[in-house]
Amino acid sequence: MNYNIAIDGPAGAGKSTVAKAIAKKKGFIYVDTGAMYRAMALYFLREGIAAGETDKIEAACEKADISIDYADGVQIVLLNGENVNGLIRTEQVGNMASSSSVNPKVREKLVALQQKLAAEKSVVMDGRDICTKVLTDAAVKIYLTADTKVRAKRRYDELVEKGENCDIAAIEKDIQERDHRDMTRAVSPLVRAEDAVLVDSSNMPVEEVVRTILSISDKKSGE
Ligand code: DC
User: Fold this and answer.
1) Whole-angstrom Cα distance, residue 165 to residue 161?
2) Which of 23, 101, 112, 150 is the most exposed place for a label (fewest CB within 10 A)?
3) What is the pTM for the complete model shown?
4) Atom 5 of ligand 1, residue of closest alpha carbon
């Protein structure tokens, strides 16, 4: 069986940065499941579908083929064959991903793809339901979180660096709303799995978070 590392946590906790670094160190594949929900959300937005239109989302879901490729170790998300990496990082797509991911049909389709990837190769996979649903038998399970204000500041700094004009209070409110939606939905809400190790990155630089998770992984391997 493959050695899989599962990382769940709220938006802005640093999951993707940390997961990428761990995958590199271990020589594993990094699987960003949020990007899959985002690609699906992009399809819905392009079809002019609104967040609450369940029937339309379920019908459109059948027509959106999501697949994953890798170029120089970087995950590329393909939506019906088109590389959409450059189009899925907007707040609009993120919010649509959060809203449309409550739909069981959307989840069923993407969970199947995620489980297939982890069955083929050892992965570091991050998302909201990886420990609790997608890879329940992962060798290492981590719940990575950080204080809401810290997560808002990180997002703010990222956007400022990209030259975008933004308001930190609005970002914090957006994060709170997203947390609420992701944590209270009926299907696979974001919760810490009983057997996941809690890592709070509020006061930790990235390298320290990476070291902490690698040492948790080493301990598990030695058990
Ligand atoms: O991690 P992210 O911001 O790219 O994720 C975007 C949204 O996708 C997130 O708000 C909820 C949804 N998502 C999910 O429901 N399950 C996952 N495993 C990953 C993401």
Assistant:
1) 10
2) 112
3) 0.95
4) 34
